[in-house]
Amino acid sequence: MSETTVPATRTAASSAASPVSAESTTARGRRARIALRTLQVVLALFYVIASALPKLIAHPSAVEGFDTMGWGSAGMYIIGVLELAGGIALLIPVLQSVAAVALSALMVGAFVVQLTYFDGENAATPLILILPLALIAWARRGHNADLLRLVRRRA
Question: In terms of DSSP H, where are the helices of 18-142?
């Protein structure tokens, strides 16, 4: 006679402790995880290459923009480092949600700057970037508990 196994069921307590949903073992769940990871990689590449790099190498277009705002090179380098750190952190599992929230906050600031200094010329760009960042922050929110445990263990 063949041996049958009964799939383990998750209790409410174990579901709350782990961010993995019942759907994540299905083909649809795997596709969703792959799509989310792809989105994170694309955003990380955008922030590192297209956004942070011009600021960190003092590309003339970045220098001109920051001079227009009166922030100078110090402001340009600070924003560049923040974008670089956020882009890299989007790829580190324990930091993904926090990085998405931090980059969203940076994009709110970029939106305000676009409206106040540049007459809203490119104001839609930061708003568009907030949407996938919010999705990542929400979808990866389970990692926040892991990060909190790491911080408490080091303290």
Answer: 27-45, 53-56, 60-69, 72-89, 96-117, 124-139
How does residue 24 score in pLDDT terms, banded at 50, 70 and 90?
Answer: low
Contact indicator for 122, 114 with CB cutoff of 8 Å: yes
Query: What confidence tier does 9 reach under pLDDT thresholds 50, 70, 90?
Result: very low
**Separation between Cα atoms, residue 51 and residue 63, nearest integer Å:** 13
* Residue 43 confidence (pLDDT): 98
2 pLDDT above the threshold of 90: no
Look-up of token digits 């906050």: 105
d(CA 113, CA 144) in angstroms, rounded, equals 30
pTM of the model: 0.81
Among candidate residues 90, 98, 97, 103, the one with its CA nearest the CA of residue 40: 90
Is there a contact between 111 and 59 (Cβ–Cβ < 8 Å)? Answer: no
Q: Closest Cα partner for 46 from 54, 57, 35? A: 54
Region 121-129 average pLDDT: 94
**Which is nearest to 132 in space by CA: 84, 78, 90?**
90
